[in-house]
Amino acid sequence: MILYVDTSDVSGGALDELKPAVKRLVDFVEANEPRLIAYNVYFSNDGKRMTVVSVHPDSASLEYHMKVAGPLFRQFVELVTLSSIHIYGEPSETVLKQAHEKAQLLGRGTVVVDSLHAGFTRSVTSAESETRSAQFGARSTRG
What we know:
Blueprint: E1 2-10, H1 15-32, E2 38-43, E3 49-56, H2 59-69, E4 80-88, H3 93-106, E5 107-114, H4 126-136
Parallel strand pairs: 4-5
Antiparallel strand pairs: 1-3, 1-4, 2-3
């Protein structure tokens, strides 16, 4: 499994334009990347920072994401400055190249890779996820 996290600073005054652009990107990714386990975008409470978190079953899935969604990243050049990309797992050389290209396109970001030392992954069905969200008071991201 590969966990991908990137963090960007939101350009001043760009939040109102950024949010619908991100929603369109998320819709595109959901429709075109069936292997992707999770793809979530978060904004800090003050709207100055955006964090993208994606979970991939393997490096090939992340490589595919960068290939398919990569052309859409250009629309964010004026809206954000990427500060970091963290990849947890074992990315391919192609993924590393793609991550560095994204960092260069969107800002001054660094690319950091951390290898798995120990852990496990559980599969959660949609019904289980909704039940857990309700139990813990989490808000749904579906609209």
